[in-house]
Amino acid sequence: MPDRQPTTLDDFYREIATNLGQRSPSSPTESPGDIGHFGVFDLGALHRDGPPKQMPYNRRTYYKVSLIGGRNRAEYADRVIEVGRNALLFATPNIPYHWLPLDSQPRGYFCVFTRDFLAANALGTRLDALPIFRPGQTPLFEVAEREAEVARAIFRKMIAEAGSDYAYRSDLLRTYLLELIHLGQKLQPAPTVADLPTAATRITALFRELLEREFTPLSPTNPLRLRTPGEVAERLSLHVNYLNQTLKAETGKTTSQLIGERIVQEAKVLLRHSRWSISEIAYALGFEEPAHFSNYFKRYTDHSPGSFRS
After folding, report:
1. Which of 274, 204, 203, 246 is nearest to 1 (CA)?
2. At what angle do helices 199-213 and 240-251 cross, to 10 degrees?
3. Do the Cβ atoms of 24 and 16 come closer than 8 Å?
4. Rounded CA gap, 104 and 202, in Å?
């Protein structure tokens, strides 16, 4: 069942402490005056005494980069990705997912970090500006052994540095983190033209980010608020006609279509992965009446919410 509140770093460390028998892992990268949070872990060591656990469909308040070996499946609102050997996963607070390990013995590494941690580097890197963390990009890659070994080497350097007493270890860890991110970005499909941001691409990215944030957190008592093109345009300080023309040119779809498709994606996840009633799902998605939600869902899917759930 999706949590009504996103998973925080405190939640994450409590879960790790439980897996380790109440021995909470330290966070040696945090020191007085440091900015943000960073932690790096050996996946096998965390699950040495038991099988891996599924990660329920939910948003997290932190970023995560993982190298995971073996068979696994990631379920997103709009797609399911299965991998059979080595996978690189780039998770962001904006995009929820459900992780299902399909092997009994996990192996690999992962690191978690906050936006502030990476923003503190000398280059002033903005996570939202990095293609791999933008909504709509590929968040998961199955990689060959050569790329996997490159990523393993970076993670091993991270673990060694996180345990050191080097005064500038956080700066070095940021460098290693950027290495991982750029490794993932190289795996993205090559653009046909130079990736120079235009006003249209910036508006489209802002629209997608704003829309994703509206689904965090989501519940019957904290429903979706932005449901119409006019409401979104007002939030972005744009004329609704200009927003619609821009999105149509960039995506081939109108503002209403993009909003509607995203609402239906979330509805499908809630119908399949939550115990909420159909009425509760309708209210969470901003519908005043369950009947309106049912008609809306059927218009996009040709199924009623009840038949889709069964």
Report:
1. 274
2. 100
3. yes
4. 43
